[in-house]
C-alpha cells in the first residue's frame, strides 16, 4: 500500500485525503497550524489519520508521495528534505487529474483568472456536465471522487503549477502575466513566467492554448519557448486569423474557419479587461461546441465574481465598489481604468514589492482622495501624497468607510481596490471585502 502524506488540512488537502483513501492509499494529513473543525470532522468520520499544530517528521519522510498545499513554499525545510530524499512532492491538481478522464480546461494568469474561470463555467454549465474547481469552490480531488463530471474548469495558480509533473489540460488559458508573488520566485520575473507556462508543458498538438496576444510578456515567451499545442490568441488591437479579436463593437472568434460574432455592448461586465475575459471564456465555449446563442446570453446575464469590482450599494448617489480581490497593482490598474466618476480610493496592505508608477495617470485624473488601509503605508504616501488633496491613514475598515462617506459627494465612487495582500489586518481578501460591505451597509 502506497503512503500518501498531505501537508495542509484545508480544502485541497482534505479533498485529496478522501480521494487518496478511496484509491487505496494509506493517508496521513499534517498541518502546521490548526485544522478548521469542518475539515477535522470529515477526517475523523472517514477514519483518516491527521495531526495539527506540528509536522511529525518520522510520519512524513516515509511517504511515497506528498501533496502539499499551495500556501507552503518550496523553500520550506521539510519540503526541501522530501525532495532531496527523492519523494515526489505534487499539487492537488496533479494528484487528482490522474483519476479522471474528463476534458479539462485549465486557466491561469496574474489577473482575470477567477472571472474567466467563473464565466467559462457559467457558459458551459448551460449545456454540458461540468465542474468548477482548483483555486475556487470545492476541491478538485473531492469532485473527481464524488461527482465525476465529464468536464472541469480549473482555476490554477502558479503555486499549484509548481507542483505538476504530468498534468495536461485539453484547453489551457493564460490570461496575462504581470509581476506578482515575486517574493516566492526569488524576485525573478522569469521564474514566475516559467511557472505559469507549466500549464502548457505537457500539451500535445491535439490540445489548445488560449492567450492574450496583446501581452508582450506572453508573446515574447512563446517565441523563445514554443509549445506543442495549437495557439488561439485573443486581442483588442490586432486582427486574429485563428482566435478572437475585437472588431469595432464586436468580438469575433474564429476556430478552423468557423466564426461566431458577439456584440460587446450587452456584456454584463464593464471594462476593457472584461472584454478579454469574455473572449477567453467564449473561445473555450466555442471549442467545446456550445451554441452561439447560449454563449451570447451567458455573457449578458453573468453576475460577476464576489470581491471583484462588485457594486455594493448606492448611498446619497455615491456608488460603493468592492474590489478586495485586487491583490496586485495590475488588478487595481484595471479597476481605476474602468472608473468613470471621481473616485475615493481605499488602498493598502502587505506590499509584494509593488511599483505604483503605472497608476499615476489614473490617480492624477480620476482619484480625488486616497485612504491608506494598512499597517505600513509609507510607500503609498511617498508615491501619491503630491497627487491628491486628501490622503489619510487608518487601520480599521469601519473607519476607512466612514472617512470615505464624509469625503464623497453625489456622483462619486468609493472604491476598495487595495493593490496589496490582506494579511496585515485581515485573514484574507474575502474577509477584507466582507468587512467593507458590512461597513457600507452600516453607514
UniProtKB/TrEMBL annotation:
UniProt xrefs under InterPro entries: Mur-like_cat_sf, Mur_ligase_C, Mur_ligase_C_dom_sf, Mur_ligase_cen, MurD
One Pfam family matching this protein: Mur_ligase_C
Gene3D superfamilies listed in its UniProt record: Mur ligase, C-terminal domain, Mur-like, catalytic domain, NAD(P)-binding Rossmann-like Domain
Annotated EC: 6.3.2.9
Domain annotation Mur ligase C-terminal: ranges: 307-420
Catalysed transformations (reactions): UDP-N-acetyl-alpha-D-muramoyl-L-alanine + D-glutamate + ATP = UDP-N-acetyl-alpha-D-muramoyl-L-alanyl-D-glutamate + ADP + phosphate + H(+)
Location(s), subcellular: Cytoplasm
Residue ranges constituting the Mur ligase central domain according to the UniProt record: 107-285
Annotated positions binding ATP: 109-115
Protein family per UniProt: Belongs to the MurCDEF family.
Function according to Swiss-Prot or TrEMBL: Cell wall formation. Catalyzes the addition of glutamate to the nucleotide precursor UDP-N-acetylmuramoyl-L-alanine (UMA).
Protein name per Swiss-Prot or TrEMBL: UDP-N-acetylmuramoylalanine--D-glutamate ligase
Organism (species): Formosa undariae
Amino acid at each position: 500500500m502506497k503512503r500518501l502524506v498531505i501537508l495542509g488540512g484545508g480544502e485541497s488537502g482534505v479533498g485529496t485525503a478522501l480521494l487518496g483513501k478511496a484509491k487505496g492509499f494509506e493517508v496521513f494529513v499534517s498541518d502546521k497550524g490548526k485544522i478548521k473543525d469542518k475539515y477535522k470532522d470529515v477526517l475523523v468520520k472517514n477514519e483518516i489519520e491527521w495531526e495539527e499544530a506540528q509536522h511529525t517528521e518520522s510520519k512524513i519522510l516515509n511517504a511515497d508521495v506528498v501533496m502539499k498545499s499551495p500556501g507552503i513554499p518550496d523553500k520550506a525545510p521539510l519540503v526541501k528534505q522530501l525532495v532531496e530524499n527523492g519523494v515526489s512532492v505534487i499539487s492537488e491538481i496533479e494528484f487528482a487529474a490522474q483519476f479522471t478522464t474528463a476534458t479539462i480546461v485549465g486557466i491561469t494568469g496574474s489577473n482575470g483568472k477567477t472571472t474567466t474561470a467563473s464565466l467559462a463555467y457559467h457558459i458551459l454549465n448551460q449545456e454540458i456536465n461540468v465542474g468548477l474547481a482548483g483555486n475556487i469552490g470545492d476541491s478538485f480531488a473531492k469532485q473527481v471522487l464524488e461527482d465525476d463530471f465529464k468536464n472541469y474548469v480549473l482555476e490554477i495558480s502558479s503555486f499549484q503549477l509548481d507542483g505538476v509533473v504530468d498534468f495536461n489540460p485539453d484547453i489551457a488559458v493564460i490570461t496575462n502575466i504581470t509581476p506578482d508573488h515575486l517574493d516566492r520566485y526569488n524576485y525573478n520575473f522569469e521564474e514566475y513566467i516559467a511557472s505559469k507556462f507549466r500549464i502548457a508543458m505537457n500539451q500535445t498538438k491535439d490540445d489548445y492554448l488560449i492567450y492574450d496576444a496583446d501581452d508582450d510578456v506572453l508573446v515574447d515567451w512563446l517565441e523563445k519557448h514554443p509549445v506543442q499545442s495549437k495557439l488561439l490568441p485573443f486581442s483588442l488591437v490586432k486582427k486574429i486569423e485563428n482566435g478572437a479579436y475585437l472588431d469595432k463593437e464586436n468580438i469575433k472568434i474564429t476556430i478552423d474557419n468557423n466564426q461566431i460574432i458577439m456584440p460587446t455592448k450587452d456584456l454584463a461586465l464593464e471594462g476593457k479587461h472584461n472584454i478579454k475575459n469574455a473572449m477567453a471564456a467564449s473561445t473555450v465555449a466555442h471549442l467545446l461546441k456550445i451554441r452561439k446563442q447560449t454563449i451570447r446570453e451567458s455573457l449578458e446575464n453573468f453576475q460577476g465574481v464576489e470581491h471583484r469590482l462588485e457594486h455594493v450599494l448606492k448611498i446619497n448617489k455615491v456608488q460603493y465598489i468592492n474590489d478586495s480581490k485586487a491583490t496586485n497593482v495590475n488588478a487595481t490598474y484595471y479597476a481605476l481604468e474602468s472608473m468613470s466618476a471621481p473616485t475615493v480610493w481605499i488602498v493598502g496592505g502587505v506590499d509584494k514589492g509593488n511599483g505604483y508608477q503605472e497608476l499615476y495617470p489614473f490617480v492624477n485624473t480620476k482619484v480625488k482622495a486616497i485612504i491608506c488601509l494598512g499597517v505600513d503605508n509609507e510607500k503609498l504616501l511617498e508615491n501619491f501624497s503630491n497627487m491628491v488633496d486628501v490622503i489619510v491613514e487608518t487601520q480599521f475598515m469601519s473607519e476607512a468607510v466612514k472617512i470615505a462617506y464624509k469625503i464623497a459627494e453625489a456622483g462619486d465612487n468609493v472604491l476598495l481596490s487595495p493593490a496589496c495582500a490582506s494579511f496585515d489586518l485581515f485573514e484574507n481578501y474575502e474577509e477584507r471585502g466582507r468587512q467593507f460591505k458590512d461597513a457600507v451597509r452600516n453607514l
